[in-house]
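Deliverable D4.2, example record:
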Amino acid sequence: MRIAIFSDIHANFEALTAVLKAYEEHDVQKYICLGDVVGYGADPNLCCDKIRETADLSVMGNHDAAVAGKMSYDYYYEACRLVLDQHHSVLTQENLQWLTQRPYSELHEYDGLTVGFSHGSPVRPQAFEYIFYMEHVKALLEHFDELPDVSFIGHSHLCKFFAIHKDTKEVFAVHASTFPIKPEYKYIINVGSVGQPRDNNNKSAFTIFDTSTRIFECKRVEYDIETAARKILQANQDKNFANRLWVGI
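Output generated by the structure prediction step:
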């Protein structure tokens, strides 16, 4: 089975539309969203509607939790808080309820492989901890036995991949966009962002995992940034949320 795995849409309907269109060319059978459907962008309802229609699983992101009243966001910077307030005010009751009901994580088994899905760290997923530096992964070693064979996560807005050797517990960065999942390792895979990439590449990130061949692929696709940015400005949000789309930061 080929699984579409993507994250951090952030109310960017143009980016989400482009990614879902790109998936049509890759024969995927299941769609999994790793959270943060809302926040930053201009189309929270359109994006929630589309994910509810398309995704077989969507886990809770920190912006989803904030908008749904599941966590405090007092410590977020002001421009971000204002968007979260705005999204809470415009979301339909159906979409708010749907966000509230998202699980923080799920664990599945595919062809003998245990696979976890969460927004942030697979350990204490409700804490939304980042895992995108080598030091972050090494900190997980004390929980090594709890980790599934593969942990797919979002939150960082970066395409970052790590492997942990099951015997030596050595941590390695994987510097490839396509690679096999090998049985002697456990993996932490950051799938990047659909709606707000932050790796100096403004193309939307989306990934595919083939459970039969155990091949993981990370891909990028262009989308209509001009329209997405213009909508943010028209919604009277901070102009930096529009400008950063152009440069991928």
